[in-house]
From TrEMBL:
<dbReference type="Pfam" id="PF00903">
    <property type="entry name" value="Glyoxalase"/>
</dbReference>
<feature type="domain" description="VOC">
    <location>
        <begin position="6"/>
        <end position="136"/>
    </location>
</feature>
<dbReference type="InterPro" id="IPR037523">
    <property type="entry name" value="VOC_core"/>
</dbReference>
<dbReference type="InterPro" id="IPR004360">
    <property type="entry name" value="Glyas_Fos-R_dOase_dom"/>
</dbReference>
<protein>
    <submittedName>
        <fullName>VOC family protein</fullName>
    </submittedName>
</protein>
<dbReference type="InterPro" id="IPR029068">
    <property type="entry name" value="Glyas_Bleomycin-R_OHBP_Dase"/>
</dbReference>
């Protein structure tokens, strides 16, 4: 039976990233994790913050949409971590259940994103709540999934 590992990180969507980073650093004593520096550029645009002992991570990125009152309408996500073999099994489980991503596409092996040292799979529940499964068995998964090295 498939199980989820611990929570790897939580995505936080904000309307002002520099302001948010200052707040999270000042109030929660979280600092940018240099291992995730490459994720700041490109479509993902996330800054990964980590607490002093590395037990808590937040991925802070710009909110995709706002309504007229300035409320963020694109939610953050909760990311769970699993091993490489479980990651492959989760892909098949989600595909078999016809689970979709936020664009309405059914999850499949080509839904996996390569983030240089980990892989991720994003999906939504029937209510639109976003989730992600990640694995740090990157090298093994790149070989198994024949990822083309296109980074997200």
């Amino acid at each position: 039976m498939l199980t989820l590992g611990k929570i790897d990180h939580i995505h936080i969507r904000v309307t002002d990233v520099p302001k948010a980073l200052k707040w999270y650093q000042r109030v929660l004593a979280m600092a940018p994790d240099p291992r995730y520096k490459h994720m700041r550029e490109g479509p993902h645009g996330a800054v990964m913050l980590v607490n002093a002992n590395g037990a808590v991570r937040l991925a802070v990125s710009l909110a995709v949409n706002e309504d007229k009152s300035g409320n963020v309408s694109h939610q953050g996500a909760i990311a769970f971590v699993v091993g490489g073999q479980d990651f492959l099994e989760w892909i098949d489980q989600l595909a078999g259940e016809r689970v979709t991503n936020s664009e309405g596409q059914t999850i499949a092996r080509d839904s996996v994103r390569d983030h240089r040292f980990f892989c991720s799979l994003s999906f939504v529940d029937p209510f639109g709540n976003p989730f992600e499964i990640v694995s740090y068995d990157h090298t093994w998964l790149v070989g198994k999934l024949k990822l083309n090295g296109q980074l997200e």
